[in-house]
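Ticket #4471: structure output looks truncated?

Reporter: J.K.
Steps to reproduce: submitted the chain below (250 residues) through the standard prediction queue, then opened the result file.
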Amino acid sequence: MKSVIETLMQRRSIRRYEREPLTPEQVELIHDAIHNTPTSYNGQQFSVIEITDQTLKEKLYELTNQKQIKTCNRFYLFCIDFNKIRLIAEAKGVEMPRVEDTADGLFLGIIDASMAMTNAITAAEACGLGTCPIGYARTAAPGEFAKILNLPKGVFIVCGLAVGVPREIPDMKPKQPIKSQIFQNTYPTDSKNLLETLRQYDNTVSHYNRTRSGSTSENDWAAHIVSYYAEAEHFNILEDLKKQGFDIKK
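Returned output as attached by the reporter:
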């Protein structure tokens, strides 16, 4: 078992996996970590779908073109879930407000599901396993995912997570300097210094992409990330949310 420091500081996204299965002990630890996730009000506004069926994983791969989904041993989908609380509220005759139609309700579910995924990542990495979060599980074909997985109203995918025995140990990607991530007491008013830090980081990422082991590229940080944002303009998440029973109004 890795130490806390090793687990947190050596984590990297793994996209190639061995065929070796996870042990029952590894799976139990991941489940226990998910189970003990801290959540808003202890409302536990999330659920997780664990996929081990290879045919199903390959169907989801075809929708996303993310090879990690079909090659990992287990694929986890972390979801906002207001279905469970609504079920018991109605059974007890408790009037259930339309919290899923508010931005705060959406944040509740996203934060809870994200924290559950972080716990799963930490547990898996501590066992020596590899992980890779996959946002395309949310954006590529949410309607098809919902049908295949029988998601009821009030449930929506936040992110997927591939888990398995790693076949590769890629180079660590450079992160922003701590001084441009953690600010003391207030957000910095000196945008000039912040911009200079970001320029230096942009150059660091460019150098990493040109010299890293495996496939290389000429990608920088800023333009490359903005290109992802431009891609997001073609997503229709609000409509997909509506189909799953969410109708954000305020």
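Triage note (M.O.): checked the attachment and the full token line is present. Strands lie at 46-51, 74-81, 130-134, 155-164.
Status: closed, working as intended.
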